[in-house]
Structures are given as C-alpha cells and as structure tokens.
Amino acid sequence: NAGVTQTPKFQVLKTGQSMTLQCAQDMNHEYMSWYRQDPGMGLRLIHYSVGAGITDQGEVPNGYNVSRSTTEDFPLRLLSAAPSQTSVYFCASSYSRKAGPFNTDTQYFGPGTRLTVL
Amino acid sequence: EDQVTQSPEALRLQEGESSSLNCSYTVSGLRGLFWYRQDPGKGPEFLFTLYSAGEEKEKERLKATLTKKESFLHITAPKPEDSATYLCAVLGSSNTGKLIFGQGTTLQVKP
Q1: Contact of B66 with B52, CB cutoff 8 Å
Q2: How far is A27 from chain B (nearest CA, A)?
C-alpha cells in the first residue's frame, strides 16, 4: 500500500489564484481530513469527511472547499489564495470504527504540501 | 473546550539520558489519546494510541502512559535518531473524528 499520498509537494501561488491540493489513500479508509500546520499554532483541522459524499467543517474552514466523490480521494480547493494561507498542509485518513458516531481509530498522515502565497 | 498542552517545548538530552515528555489535556469524554513523531519536512508518523487511564504501550525505547489528566512519553536511553518533534493529540466525545493537537515537544539527542 502507498498509504496517504499528496500532490504537489511544493507550490507557490500569487494572491487571488486558485488551486487544488490532491490527497489520495489506498487503504479503503472511510474517514479523511485536512490539516494545516503553522509555527506556534500546531496542527489545525480544516475540513473532514466521514465517507463519500459527506463533508464537514473543522476549526479553520474559511477560504477552503472540499468534496468527496470517491472513498480514495479528498481534494482541498483554495478558491482565491491569500498570504494567510501560506502553510504546510497535511491530509490524513483512518478507518471509521462502527462505535456510534465517533471515529476512535488512528489517523495516518500524508507527507504534506508546502504552500507559499505571495 | 477541548485543549492539549505539551511540555517542555524543547528538550535537549545526551545520548543515553532518559527523560519524559508531558501531554496535559482537557477533553469532554476522552475517546483516545494519540502520540505522533514528526521529522522535519515530513508528515506526522503514528506511534501510539491510548484509550483509557492506566493504559501503557511500548515501542523500542518509547513508552506511553495515560492518566485521567495527562499522558507521558518516556524515552529510555535515547539515541540521536530519536531526535524529532513529538506531537500529542486527543479525541473527545464532543468532536466527531476531530483530533485536537498540542504544540509538540522538539527533542534533540546529542551523541
């Protein structure tokens, strides 16, 4: 298994440009999520999905869109990039244990995308 | 509000000098506490999951323990290759699959 893969590894955008960060997993995980990591702020949840066709907002969703049309893929879209979105973005996935509405399974992370917005 | 605080922020050890990292948490109904290791320029790598107070898990020189208020990551006789940032995260009953991360502890082990 390749695990969780992310593309691109690095990206530079100009303010106002749009782009999509790609995330894919081959572990048949139901749960997928996007985090951003900034110095002094730790990892913060942007959006997450508990299955194909189901997405929800995390802690810092503004400026980002997601969709989940397949189990394997969970792209993150920046509609109009801003310098405040300069960060390292991580995608993660896990099984969704059938224990009520809570996912207690370990999340596995991809290698990250380093984004700079000028 | 669920919260995680890790201490110290940075730790320097000599090779072989054992120590512990602390993760204090406030969460409504702990569903799981997770430890990750992160090397520079890479994604977090899973180490341990702890689900209930009193639980302990070990992997090579690392041992994680859990109480109702905090978790410790004990490092026994560390080696330079143990140098990394160690992240703690919690999952509470009020958050569906949403991990809350601490700031991390950056460990440097000198030979």
Answers
A1: yes
A2: 15
Residue B99 amino acid letter: L
Nearest by CB to residue A42, choosing from B41, B51, B101, is: B101
pLDDT in tens, A83-108: 999 999 999 998 765 444 444 577 88
A85: closest CA of chain B, how far (Å): 18
- Under a CB-based contact definition with an 8 Å cutoff, are residues B47 and B25 in contact? no
Asked if the bond preceding A111 is cis, omega within 30° of 0, the reply is no
> Residue A33 in contact with residue A45, Cβ under 8 Å?
yes
Would you call A104 and B51 a contact, using CB atoms and an 8 Å cutoff? yes
Q: What is the pLDDT of residue A2?
A: 81
The answer to whether A90 contacts B44, with C-beta atoms less than 8 Å apart, is yes
Residue B66 · residue B55 · CB < 8 Å: yes
DSSP A61-96: -TTEEE--SSSSB--EEESS--GGG-EEEEEEEE--
B82 backbone φψ class: left, alpha, beta (φ>0; ψ -120 to 50)? alpha
- pLDDT < 50: residue spans in chain A: 98-103
Cis before A39? omega within 30? no
